[in-house]
Amino acid sequence: MDMQASRQLAVTQQQAWDALNDPEVLKRCIAGCDRVEATAPQQYAVGVALRIGPVSAKFSGKIDLSELDPPNSYTLSFEGKGGPAGFGKGDARVKLIANETGCLLDYTVHAQVGGKVAQLGQRLVDGAAKSMAEDFFKRFDEEMQRRHPAAPGAPEAPAAVPAKTGLAGVPAWVWIAGALALVAVWWLSRQT
Predict the structure, then answer these.
(1) The pTM is what?
(2) pLDDT tens, 54-103?
(3) Which distant-in-sequence residues (6+ apart) come within 8 Å of 168 by Cβ?
(4) What are the backbone angles phi and psi of residue 24, rounded to the nearest 5°?
(5) What are the structural domain ranges in the chain?
(6) CATH node for 2-181
């Protein structure tokens, strides 16, 4: 699967960078996530419980960050296993671009899935990925508002930028799901 998407964030580029690299923020924003812990410099272990159609499983995996250019961009490689439910692996290029209303999160994901999850059918997996991405961004936006409340009289948060989709029409934030359960998108990952 190849996917690409963008999301407008109502925080500064540095605030978004810090949050997307904070294991506690990610753990709060990823539904079903019970673990995001640093295991080495630029490496994290993740655990998440997922249900996609009739398949439910606890996925565990790792995320490795490389090509770091704070607070502009990085590349992440992910790998996740859910026993008989399946596996996922791939990489994502994440970019944060400062603009007048905060910053734009842009990412491109290349992923492979296998096992029972891959047998469910593209439409069901795509729907689950879209739902997970929306849920992540809703939680992320709420966490950013909690951490960085707008000043009185400040303009309202910008609306989401419509996502660009890849060949399969999969929403972009699938890297998170892929990394955590091999299905959807830190940002990192993100969008509809």
Answers:
(1) 0.72
(2) 777 788 999 899 999 999 999 989 888 988 888 888 888 989 999 999 99
(3) 1, 2, 3, 122, 126
(4) -70, -40
(5) 2-181
(6) 3.30.530.20
